[in-house]
Structures are given as structure tokens and as C-alpha cells.
Amino acid sequence: MYLVFMKFYWLKFTWFLIVMMAVGSGYGCSCNMARTIKESVDGAPAIFMGTVLAEASADLEMGEMRAYTIKVKKIYKGTVRADTVVVFTNFSEARCGIQFKVNSKIIAFATTILRDKKLINENRFFETSLCTWSGPYKVAIDKQLTSVIGKR
């Protein structure tokens, strides 16, 4: 009886491991967040700080995305042509999407959205992910950005 129980337990455990490895390797967000802030500044075409005004969902060519309307307060780097922009991110954190809270202050390390190698809507639409330093506003990150960008 004990051997039958152990065989059953071992079989369940083995299937659990196989399923976890398959899910983890195929669907998880994988990015190298060990980048320094300087490397992130160099790799981001636009960096800005603002307040999240609204959140919506959008079904785009890239898949289901979150669309955040951001009131831009400070531009650290790049061309941001409007005081209010839309930042898209993947809907799922498993696909590197990032969540912002409405009415929160954020810093966005963003890329412009291109279609057929042309900018969409004159630097008003951007994209970001968990693989950047984007997130809630922090004074320490603001100071680091000012320091790094000021030395350019």
C-alpha cells in the first residue's frame, strides 16, 4: 500500500514539474533588468514624468494592450509633442506589461511606436514594459536621471 501511494505521489509530482517548466519557459516575462540607469537612459528614446489620468484597454496589432493617458509634467529626454500622451503596455505582466494606478505619479522610459517605419501620431503615443525603469515616481530615480542626463 505504501509503495502504491509513493508511486502515485511521484507521478503527480513529475507531472507538476513538467507543466511548470513548460509554462515558465514559454510564457513568462524575461528581460534583463540588471541594466544600470545610464544604460536604460541610453536605450530609451523618451523619458518623462507625469500623472496617470486614465486607464483603458486596446486591441492593437501587437495584441491586447493597456492604454494609459498620462499628463506630462517633466521631460527628461526625447521629443514629447503634447502635454498629454498615451502609453501602451502589454495587458499581461507575464508578457512584460506594467500596471500603473490612476492618479499616481510615474516615470516612463518609453519607446515611440512605429508602423511601416513611420512614427505614429507625432510622438504622442509611446510604449513601455516591465523591462525598463518605468514605474511609480521616486525622488531617488528623479535625481539619478537628472544626474545622468545632465552629464551628457
Automatic annotation (TrEMBL):
<dbReference type="GO" id="GO:0005576">
    <property type="term" value="C:extracellular region"/>
</dbReference>
<dbReference type="GO" id="GO:0008191">
    <property type="term" value="F:metalloendopeptidase inhibitor activity"/>
</dbReference>
<dbReference type="InterPro" id="IPR001820">
    <property type="entry name" value="TIMP"/>
</dbReference>
<dbReference type="Pfam" id="PF00965">
    <property type="entry name" value="TIMP"/>
</dbReference>
<keyword id="KW-0964">Secreted</keyword>
<dbReference type="InterPro" id="IPR008993">
    <property type="entry name" value="TIMP-like_OB-fold"/>
</dbReference>
<protein>
    <recommendedName>
        <fullName>Tissue inhibitor of metalloproteinase</fullName>
    </recommendedName>
</protein>
